[in-house]
């Protein structure tokens, strides 16, 4: 039997197993892309609208978030679209691919399913190959849908070649990171560390592209995530990124196969060491248990977000220096005005980043809260419930850790931006002041807490609906992040708590909004707590 | 007589429209091992989860130490030890860490007894739980339970992954608990184990307790198997009070079962036909089990 025996059957099995999640992702992503393209002529149809946004997109702050693109000659609606959407869609597509790839390989192995499959006449590399082909199918199908959707939307300035370049470019970027997930799944010894490893590399490519975009766009070629920016689909179509990502994906796939052949099933290339014979004095209750189990994840998130903040901070000196883009300003307005303008630019940049930081900081907390339910269904809590340990204490151990983690992550991330940013400036008065920093902290914390409180409510009362937490967070993030560029109506932004508070530190904190948002979070947690005390626990 | 440690009265549990427990009534007293047997899906684990306060009963009452299992679960658990059937352990902790943590949460600590149990069961406590086999995961839970000084022990199919040697260590430990006057509820599939250790047995079928009592009491409800070799041509099929009569492998050898009430009459008749060899086997728990489940023999 060849090492790839029965791959075909496994692919069918995988597609059937994942049909629901694949379908959700494809519908969501294709709908997002096509509907934005459809609406785009209405948003940026006229030349004056295009010229206005063109300046915004060229500003370093937006470049840091959306990528550097060069405009030459008369700019069309389609070019603006590509500029705003390409990197953003690539990010979502990478998240989808990492979820699918680790789930299809390492997660199945952790559950013991791979062992069952491999006991049959199935090749040694077949499960890996099946997962890789599943990724090719999903990304390919999605890419084709993008291209067709863009063609149907028919934006002014769009070309057939550009449409296909976008579709295939995104598909290849997604595939590349999916294959990266397959590789980390072979290196790590269980699914969560495989995911962690893959996300670290993803974060690294993001940071690399962000810093190079702001300073030397030419160097962005060194980040695989930067390749989508180089497609330039509607001005100078460039197919090189597609061949590059395919080539790198092939290399990574080969490495994954090599790693798979050199390890035992159930073990990683990085081996597990023996651990302590006894528990430390510190490990004595539910909170220390969560810490002991999740400390790598918690520390990883907090440190990761702080590094992210610092990386954004390093571009302050480029962004906050209007003279670089507009050298005549000083002569016209005088030094004081220039500092004032620089400060304004940095404030609005920090406001936008604060939203991103807040959304990212919610993720580890939300994971911890939802973990209370997955631990429950996996039977890990059964041993705890048989102890003299009330449900109230157990719930608040998870919830408390989650709130602290998210809060620290957010404050740390924002501090990273502000401290590093101010340090990089030539004139400190251009930077963000301490009081503005604290305004930024108080403005976003209620939003973070409301998101987490909603998860507590779902876990306590309707645990089956827990996936809604992620949808709601995604909705909140997209509506605010893309809101102003897509000119979304206010009611869309107000659907999620991320839109309830005015942009701070650009504006002041609205303490009335602050108070009722905190009150709302408390009420949601209390209802969730009551539900959790009353309901049956689901054991496997 | 003192109050029973565990008292269950007409316990019911519904999951949506599915009635998982219809009518469960039994009690467990101090100093006894109560065997809880029944096929997969009969409701053993559901009953135990109600007792632990993990799920809430839809009807009936259940008390442990005279306290309500749902509302007073925390104070009950202070004096209770439990080993689940499928032991799931936190994958990135070692066995040693888990044992210590579980003990600490009950307010006790790792003792010489714990070390002794780890040695007896042959567990390597430095391994991460992720790498343990099913039997080793069960050992972790068993060691934690036996090192605890509880008054009521619940074991839900605790030996399904253990080898015969460890099974024996388990049985010794349970008998030791009994000698110290503790109450034990043992749910098991291994009928020989139940037969050897349990003072009383409850049989559950489709969410209902269909029989409780000691093994001796239950045996009266069924028939004794008899194998006899006679000295003449007597046809046992003509004998009243016998069931399932079959000719044996040897000439004049017969096998049949007989109800306890008919036993002496049957023996008298057989004695007149020159009994050469006679073997009578009381029903095993397995026979009882089959009797209740298939409604035959």
From TrEMBL, chain A:
It comes from the Bacteria. Keywords: Membrane, Transmembrane, Transmembrane helix. The chain crosses the membrane at residues 20-40, 52-73, 85-106, 126-152, 164-183, 242-259, 298-319, 345-370, 395-421, 441-462, 469-489, 509-532. The keyword Acetylation does not apply. This is Permease. The lineage of its organism: Bacteria, Bacillati, Bacillota, Bacilli, Lactobacillales.
Automatic annotation (TrEMBL), chain B:
It holds the Pfam family ABC_tran. One of its GO terms (molecular function) is ATP binding. Residues 6-231 form the ABC transporter domain. InterPro entries: AAA+_ATPase, ABC_transporter-like_ATP-bd, ABC_transporter-like_CS, ABC_Transporter_VariousFunc, P-loop_NTPase. The keyword Ligase does not apply. It comes from the Bacteria. The keyword Nucleotide-binding applies. Keywords: ATP-binding, Nucleotide-binding, Transport. PANTHER family: ABC TRANSPORTER ATP-BINDING PROTEIN ALBC-RELATED. This is ABC transporter.
């Amino acid at each position: 039997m060849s090492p790839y025996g029965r791959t075909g059957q496994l692919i069918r099995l995988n597609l059937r197993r994942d049909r629901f999640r694949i379908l959700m992702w494809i519908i969501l992503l294709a709908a997002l892309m096509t509907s934005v393209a459809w609406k785009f002529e209405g948003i940026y149809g006229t030349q004056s609208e295009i010229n206005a946004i063109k300046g915004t997109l060229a500003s370093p702050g937006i470049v840091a978030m959306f990528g550097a693109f060069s405009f030459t000659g008369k700019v069309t609606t389609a070019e603006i679209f590509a500029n705003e959407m390409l990197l953003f869609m690539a990010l979502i597509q990478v998240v989808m691919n990492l979820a699918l790839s680790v789930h299809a390989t390492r997660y199945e192995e952790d559950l013991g399913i791979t062992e069952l499959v491999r006991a049959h006449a199935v090749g040694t590399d077949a499960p890996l190959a099946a997962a890789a082909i599943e990724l090719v199918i999903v990304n390919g199908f999605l890419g084709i849908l993008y291209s067709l959707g863009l063609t149907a939307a028919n934006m002014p300035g769009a070309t057939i070649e550009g449409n296909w370049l976008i579709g295939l470019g995104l598909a290849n970027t997604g595939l590349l990171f999916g294959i990266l997930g397959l590789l980390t799944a072979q290196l790590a010894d269980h699914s969560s560390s495989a995911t962690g490893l893959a996300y670290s590399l993803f974060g690294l490519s993001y940071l690399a592209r962000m810093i190079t975009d702001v300073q030397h766009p030419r160097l962005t070629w060194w980040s695989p995530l930067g390749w989508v920016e180089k497609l330039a689909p509607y001005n100078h179509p460039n197919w090189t990124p597609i061949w590059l990502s395919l080539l790198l994906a092939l290399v990574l796939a080969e490495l994954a196969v090599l790693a798979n052949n050199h390890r035992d099933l159930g073990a990683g290339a990085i081996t597990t060491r023996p651990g302590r014979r006894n528990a430390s004095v510190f490990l004595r209750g539910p909170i220390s248990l969560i810490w002991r189990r999740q400390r790598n994840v918690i520390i990883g998130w907090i440190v990761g977000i702080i590094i992210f903040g610092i990386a954004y901070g390093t571009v302050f000196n480029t962004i906050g220096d209007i003279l670089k883009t507009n050298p005549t300003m000083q002569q016209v307005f005088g030094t004081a005005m220039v500092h004032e303008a620089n400060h304004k630019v940095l404030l609005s940049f920090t406001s936008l980043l604060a939203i991103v930081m807040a959304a990212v900081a919610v993720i580890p907390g939300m994971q911890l809260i939802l973990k209370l339910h997955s631990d429950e269904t996996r039977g890990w809590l059964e041993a705890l419930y048989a102890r003299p340990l009330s449900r109230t204490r157990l719930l608040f151990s998870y919830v408390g850790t989650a709130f602290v983690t998210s809060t620290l992550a957010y404050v740390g991330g924002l501090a990273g931006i502000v401290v590093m940013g101010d340090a990089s400036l030539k004139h400190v008065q251009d930077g963000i002041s301490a009081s503005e920093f604290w305004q930024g902290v108080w403005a976003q914390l209620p939003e973070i807490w409301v998101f987490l409180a909603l998860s507590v409510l779902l876990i306590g009362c309707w645990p089956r609906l827990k996936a809604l937490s992620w949808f709601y967070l995604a909705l909140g993030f997209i509506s605010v992040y893309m809101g102003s560029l897509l000119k979304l109506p206010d009611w869309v932004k107000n659907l999620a708590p991320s839109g309830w508070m005015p942009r701070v530190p650009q504006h002041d904190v609205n303490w009335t909004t602050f108070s009722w948002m905190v009150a709302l979070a408390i009420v949601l947690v209390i209802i969730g707590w009551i539900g959790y005390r009353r309901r049956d626990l689901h054991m496997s | 007589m003192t109050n029973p440690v565990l008292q269950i009265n007409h316990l019911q549990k519904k999951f949506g429209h599915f009635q998982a427990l219809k009518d469960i009534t039994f009690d467990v007293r101090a100093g006894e091992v109560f065997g809880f047997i029944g096929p997969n899906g009969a409701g053993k684990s559901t009953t135990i989860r109600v007792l632990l306060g993990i799920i809430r009963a839809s009807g009936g009452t259940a008390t442990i130490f005279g306290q309500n299992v749902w509302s007073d679960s925390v104070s009950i658990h202070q004096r209770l030890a439990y080993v689940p059937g499928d032991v799931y352990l936190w994958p990135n902790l070692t066995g040693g860490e888990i044992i210590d943590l579980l003990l600490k949460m009950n307010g006790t600590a790792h003792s010489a007894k714990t070390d002794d149990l780890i040695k007896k069961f042959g567990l390597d406590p430095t391994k991460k739980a992720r790498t343990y086999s099913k039997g080793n995961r069960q050992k972790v839970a068993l060691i934690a339970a036996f090192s605890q000084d509880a008054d009521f022990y619940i074991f839900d199919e605790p030996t399904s992954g253990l080898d015969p040697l460890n099974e024996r260590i388990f049985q010794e430990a349970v008998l030791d608990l009994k000698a110290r006057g503790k109450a034990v509820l043992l749910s098991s599939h291994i009928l020989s184990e139940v037969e050897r250790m349990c003072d009383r047995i409850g049989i559950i079928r489709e969410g209902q307790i269909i029989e409780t009592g000691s093994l001796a009491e239950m045996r009266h409800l069924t028939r004794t198997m008899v194998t006899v070799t006679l000295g003449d041509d007597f046809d046992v099929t003509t004998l009243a009070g016998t069931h399932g009569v079959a000719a044996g492998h040897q000439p004049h050898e017969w096998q049949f079962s007989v109800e306890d009430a008919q036993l002496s009459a049957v023996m008298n008749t057989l004695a007149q036909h020159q009994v050469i060899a006679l073997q009578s086997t009381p029903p095993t728990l397995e026979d009882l089990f089959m009797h209740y489940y298939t409604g035959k023999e």
